[in-house]
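TASK: fixed-backbone design
INPUT:
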């Protein structure tokens, strides 16, 4: 069932989303060669708890192997769901940081891929195109359209640049649960899928590979990797449909301020 949110609920969700945005901003300031993802995870958790939130990913998933950290930290060929560790980041790495927060009983879920120090121009292009594909998808979240219009737009944009679009993982509805209906694939056909309606809130999150779209799973039960070992990028926003138009509840403002871009 797709839940429709009231304006009051959307305002509460905006708070949850912005709490994630600010956390990403805090993390952005600290990303540099020599810093470990475990350290970044610790400061993120501290910031979230100090500001009245609860890390949403910690303990998420299967009882036997719950996700152990506040941030998903996916390095280079890792697509998503990487587990923070004590290995220092190196110049030229890219790191996708995905963060979830529960606040006021609602979830925020939002991600950004960072370069560590100087990165190769072709890797920077992957980051730029993936971020652009997110906005190209968001533009399609309007009355009269369907989920497939978002999916199609993202796929076309990424593939036009020769990139692989991950199919096994997708965006989703968001609310009192981290993953609600509908699924929001990053590939698809125009006019397919559920109709978009006012009050829907979606986490839209293209996962784009520099090479082929295929993925594999690491034996830690979480980390998703590109099959060909080439880098992958991931950007995610929480978006509400209000008066027929998309309104982005999360914001990259804090990250961009931290990075000076
Ligand atoms: Mg996420
Ligand atoms: Mg998500």
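OUTPUT:
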């Amino acid at each position: 069932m797709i839940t429709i949110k009231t304006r009051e609920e959307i305002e509460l969700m905006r708070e949850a989303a912005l709490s994630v945005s600010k956390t990403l901003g805090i993390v952005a300031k600290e990303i540099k060669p020599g810093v470990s993802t475990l350290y970044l995870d610790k400061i993120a958790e501290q910031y979230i708890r100090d500001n009245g939130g609860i890390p949403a990913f910690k303990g998420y998933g299967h009882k036997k192997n719950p996700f152990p950290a506040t941030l998903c930290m996916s390095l280079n060929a890792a697509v998503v769901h990487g587990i923070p560790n004590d290995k220092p980041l190196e110049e030229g790495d890219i790191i996708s940081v995905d963060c979830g927060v529960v606040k006021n009983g609602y979830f925020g879920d939002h991600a950004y891929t960072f370069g560590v120090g100087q990165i190769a121009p072709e890797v920077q292009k992957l980051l730029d195109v993936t971020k652009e594909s997110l906005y190209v998808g968001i533009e399609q979240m309007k009355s009269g359209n369907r989920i497939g219009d978002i999916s199609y737009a993202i796929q076309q944009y990424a593939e036009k640049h020769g990139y692989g679009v991950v199919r096994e993982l997708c965006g989703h509805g968001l609310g009192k649960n981290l993953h609600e209906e509908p699924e929001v694939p990053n590939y698809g056909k125009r006019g397919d899928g559920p109709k978009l309606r006012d009050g829907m809130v979606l986490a839209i999150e293209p996962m784009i590979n520099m090479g082929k779209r295929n993925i594999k799973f690491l034996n830690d039960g979480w980390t998703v990797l590109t099959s060909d070992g080439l880098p992958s990028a991931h950007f995610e926003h929480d978006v509400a449909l209000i008066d027929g138009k998309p309104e982005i509840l999360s914001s990259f403002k804090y990250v961009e301020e931290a990075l000076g871009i």
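COMMENT: The chain has a mean pLDDT of 98.
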